Predict the 3D structure of the following.
Amino acid sequence: MVQTTMSILQAIRVFLFYLLLGTSSLLWCSLSFFIAPFLSFPKRYTFINVYWCRCAIFLARVIVGIDYKITGAENVPAEPCVILSNHQSTWETFFLSQYFSPLSQVLKRELLYVPFFGWAMAMLRPIAIDRDNPKEALRQVAKKGDELLKQKTWVLIFPEGTRVPFGTVGKFSRGGTALAVNAGLPVLPIAHNAGKYWPKNGWGKHAGTIEVVIGEPMYANGTGPRAIAELNDRAQAWNEAAQRALGSLAQVEESTQAEA
């Protein structure tokens, strides 16, 4: 009975969270559409993305009970570079977008056509790609990403390509490390366990504290394809080790052993 009551209350909180998040998104994107074009890019990014993403993080903490803590904040370099993070939910997109500013990320080109939301996103210099054309998408990431890095803009890459369930790690693509190596910059590795409280599938949310770990910047040992591949393998190995330390992967390993 108590468990059922708690589940109902949490469902109500989740409904309220999405109601307020959707309403704030509509209002803020509409307002941004009329104000942001007259601001410089750094101020425009802060006005559109930082403020609203902070609002989303705030709503998640106050209404649903999803808080967070950061380890390794001192590892963030002074100069923007390529951020490589695992991808489990929407939460880390909100968090990273407001923590690193200004920041650009890879997104589906179709999102830019969504009224108000897409129009506001288009003003943030995203790397919009056509996922149906992988080769062209890679060229677009390389070209646009290099331009953004030269303009002192952080570039966020989710090397797994899409969200993966909590407790797993997808294979890292080399696009992010290639971008960093060609620009002569490091990658900044980030690991988290957001999917534990904000699952990849469904609308459910669970109260708890997300742990975000920021590693030391990683530099390539040389240039060229071999250096890119080695750096990519090193970044994935670090992410897996960090998630294992958070307990994200141990649960899967233990359950697998138990089934055996």
About this structure: The longest strand covers residues 208-214. The chain has eight helices and seven strands.
